[in-house]
Design goal:
The chain is of the alpha+beta class and 84 residues long. The protein has a domain of 47 residues. It is 37% helix and 17% strand. Strand 1 and strand 2 form a beta hairpin. The longest helix is centred in the middle third of the chain and has 14 residues. The protein is elongated. The chain starts with a strand and ends with a helix.
Length: 84
C-alpha cells in the first residue's frame, strides 16, 4: 500500500499509488500533480525565465478617436402639459 502525495496549489492530498496510476488523466485534468515532481518543475521554470524585451513601436502614428455622439433624451409629457 504505497501512497502518493498529490498537489494542487497549496493543497496536498495522499492517495493510493494504484488508484493514482489508474486515473492519471483524471488527476491531471483536475490540476493535481505529484508533489515530488512539483519541485523539479519549479527549478526548470526558473532557468527558462528571460528578461522581457522592449516592444514599443518607434514609427507608429497615433490615431485620435472621435467622441461618440450622444442621443437626446426624450422629454416625457407630464400631466400638466397634457391638460394645457
Amino acid at each position: 500500500m504505497n501512497k502518493v502525495k498529490l498537489k494542487k496549489g497549496d493543497k496536498i492530498i495522499e492517495r493510493l499509488q494504484a488508484d493514482y496510476e489508474a486515473n492519471v488523466a483524471n488527476w491531471e485534468a483536475r490540476g493535481f500533480t505529484l508533489a515530488s515532481d512539483e519541485t523539479k518543475k519549479i527549478k526548470e521554470v526558473k532557468e527558462v525565465v528571460q528578461t522581457p524585451e522592449d516592444k514599443t513601436f518607434e514609427n507608429e502614428t497615433v490615431v485620435q478617436l472621435k467622441p461618440k455622439k450622444r442621443k437626446e433624451k426624450k422629454k416625457w409629457k407630464t400631466y400638466k402639459n397634457i391638460l394645457n
